[in-house]
Design goal:
mainly alpha, globular, Glycosyltransferase RgtA/B/C/D-like domain-containing protein, PIG-V/Gpi18, endoplasmic reticulum, transmembrane helix
């Protein structure tokens, strides 16, 4: 557990967890929901899921691991479903509450979704954001700010993609008893890459948003099991953190 927390806290974009962004609150709600449904407290898990989807629309993805874990603890026997399974319905209620708020204040139930167009975001096939980012990197001068920004976001996306794949295959994969983590990781990563931007940085904010895919950092901690590999990760991550934080504080690195 300590190695997992270290892997996440050393991640170069982790300083956003202490900034005026909702990533830290969202992660708290997500992890609390996981904790409760892993212990069979379905109503509390659903309540935390409600707060998660109220914080970010991606919180609705908790339905995937919630339902899987509920059925797993009942040996996937439909006859063993009980009233407490309705706790899953609390999860989308958070998003519904926020949609009602948007309707009351902006006369648009989906204002939170339509606002993404301001950033040039739209629903596209998952690989297109990566391909567009790579195309821009290859066509732009290599040392421009835009090019470096795209390299960083693409690298973060590729790293998390690799970790998500490893959560299903290979020696670091999650087993059936913990498969809820892998399922959430895959769903969360897919959600992140489904809405690329068309403003010259297709994977804009990717470095920050992938922190929501916390199961990837569980796999990363397993890869960093040796002392030397963890030290190497620490040195590289700390160096990048200093650079990104300075850029952020001076108004040049906004994600």
């Amino acid at each position: 557990m300590q190695r997992v927390l270290s892997s996440l806290s050393l991640y170069p974009a982790a300083f956003f967890l202490a900034a005026a962004y909702n990533e830290s609150l969202f992660l708290l709600c997500i992890l609390a929901s996981f904790y409760f449904f892993r212990h069979g407290n379905w109503w509390l898990a659903g309540l935390c899921g409600l707060f998660a989807s109220l914080t970010r629309s991606a919180g609705i993805l908790l339905l995937v691991p919630f339902c899987y874990e509920y059925m797993r603890q009942r040996q996937f026997n439909l006859r063993r479903i009980r009233f407490d399974g309705l706790g899953a319905l609390l999860i989308p209620m958070g998003l519904g509450i926020f949609a009602v708020y948007c309707q009351l204040h902006f006369h648009d139930f989906l204002a939170f979704s339509h606002a993404q167009s301001v950033w040039g975001r739209s629903l596209r096939l998952p690989p297109l954001g990566f391909l567009s980012s790579l195309k821009i990197i290859l066509s732009d001068p290599p040392l421009t700010f835009a090019s470096i920004h795209n390299v960083v976001d693409l690298s973060a996306g590729c790293m998390i993609l690799a970790l998500v794949i490893l959560s299903f295959v290979g020696p670091w994969r999650f087993h059936q008893s913990t498969m809820a983590y892998a399922l959430y990781g895959a769903a969360a990563f897919l959600f992140v890459i489904l809405f690329p931007s068309n403003n010259g940085a297709p994977l804009q904010s990717q470095m920050r948003l992938v922190m929501e895919v916390f199961p990837a950092f569980i796999v990363l901690s397993s890869l960093l099991s040796s002392h030397k590999s963890f030290i190497a990760y620490t040195l590289i991550a700390n160096s990048l953190t200093i650079f990104f934080l300075l850029q952020f504080l001076t108004g040049f690195w906004m994600v």
